[in-house]
Amino acid sequence: MSGVGSATTLGRSFAGEGVPERGVESMHLERAVTALAAEAPRGWTRVDVDAKLCSMMHVFGVQVSSDGGGAPLSMPLPRVVGNDLVRARRLMYEPGRGTWLSAKLTVFPDGGHRVEFNFDDEPAWRPPLHPVAYARDLEAFPRDDEHVPDWLREQLRLAEIAEAEHQAQIAASSA
User: Fold this and answer.
1) What range defines the domain where residue 28 resides?
2) Which of 18, 40, 42, 162 has the fewest other C-beta atoms within 10 Å?
């Protein structure tokens, strides 16, 4: 693919800013771009993929814009795209700093693309993600305390309460 690519990080940057050049994660992103361009319906002018990921759940939204500017076109997400975004997230993990929580990948017919990574802002999960899911994600991708945003710290506090309540229910039912 000879298109122009760029990457932006929201909340903080990762080593080198721009398109990840640290290795395999860049290959996964390029493969996702290629798959989206190959599967896009006729008349498309851009494909936007919104990805929200945690270790327990992945949600992907796809929107395809058309050259007529009318209603968005329909397109299922190619399986390889979801798989490659999950792999890229895992590979982009930085010990102590964590990994991204959501991303937006935009692909254009000329092969150009843009990807934005959100490392620190709370993703807009609908319905909201259970606090325990955030706790499990932090176990999978640990962050040092200074890299835990306030909203995530609150989710972790709520997860502790939920887990304590669950343990109390288990103890009460076995008594």
Assistant:
1) 5-125
2) 42
From 49, 48, 41, 50, select the one nearest 68 (Cα to Cα).
Answer: 41
Asked if residue 147 belongs to a domain, the reply is no
Per residue in 10-25, pLDDT tens? 433 333 333 444 566 7
Q: How many helices (H) and strands (E) does the chain have?
A: 4, 5
Q: How many CB atoms lie within 10 A of CB 90?
A: 16
Q: 75 vs 31, 52, 109, 157, CA distance in Å?
A: 17, 18, 15, 39
Cα–Cα distance between 112 and 36 in angstroms, integer? 12
Quick one: how far is CA 101 from the chain centroid? 5
Q: What is the pLDDT of residues 103-156, one digit of tens each?
A: 999 999 998 999 999 999 999 999 999 999 999 999 999 999 999 999 999 999
Residue 157 is assigned to a structural domain of this protein: no
Q: Is 12 left (phi over 0), alpha (psi -120 to 50) or beta?
A: beta
Report which of 58, 57, 59, 62 is spatially closest to residue 77, judged by C-alpha positions: 62
User: pLDDT value at position 4?
Assistant: 38
